[in-house]
Specification:
The protein has 149 residues and is an alpha/beta fold. Helix content is 45%, strand content 18%. The longest helix has 28 residues, at 54-81.
């Protein structure tokens, strides 16, 4: 039987994508779960677009890099203002798969993520990153619902 980690030494994986829901999930983590000494890993995945020409591919990759930097800066400012540091993982792959793979590689204790709150039909048609992570993660997942208006 392995020894339990001291409180405040968890590795926390937080899925981010620039959306209000991801921002709310980070805020919720900071308010309810964060403990000094936790290792926070922000994960952002983007699927590579299928582009038929080299020019359109290079344009798309340039805008993807710009978006990645904007998202990284946004969350780094947020964690800095909360007086903590966070690692940032970005890759060009399906977001749900990247979150699960990162959680395994980092030996994550739990994952925190937002959800758009799609209905069952829209979620079935469009897919859901949070649904994928809940069903494929090897660690617990906290899904933060959108705030009621």
């Amino acid at each position: 039987m392995s020894e339990a980690k001291p409180k405040g030494e968890d590795t926390v994986i937080i899925a981010v994508d620039g959306s209000a829901q991801a921002g709310n999930a980070l805020d919720w983590y900071l308010e309810h779960l964060h403990r000094e000494g936790n290792k926070v890993v922000l994960v952002h995945g983007m699927e590579a677009p299928a582009m038929p020409t080299r020019d359109s591919w290079e344009n798309q990759m340039g805008s993807t890099e710009k978006k990645r930097l904007e998202i990284q800066e946004k969350y780094q400012e947020k964690v800095k203002s909360a007086n903590l540091t966070a690692d940032y993982v970005f890759d060009m792959e399906k977001p749900g798969e990247l979150v699960c793979r990162t959680a395994e590689a980092q030996k994550g204790d739990y994952i925190v993520m937002g959800t758009r709150g799609l209905g069952k039909l829209r979620r079935t048609i469009m897919g859901s990153v949070s649904d994928y992570v809940v069903h494929h993660s090897t660690c617990p997942v906290v899904v933060c619902r959108p705030a009621k208006e």
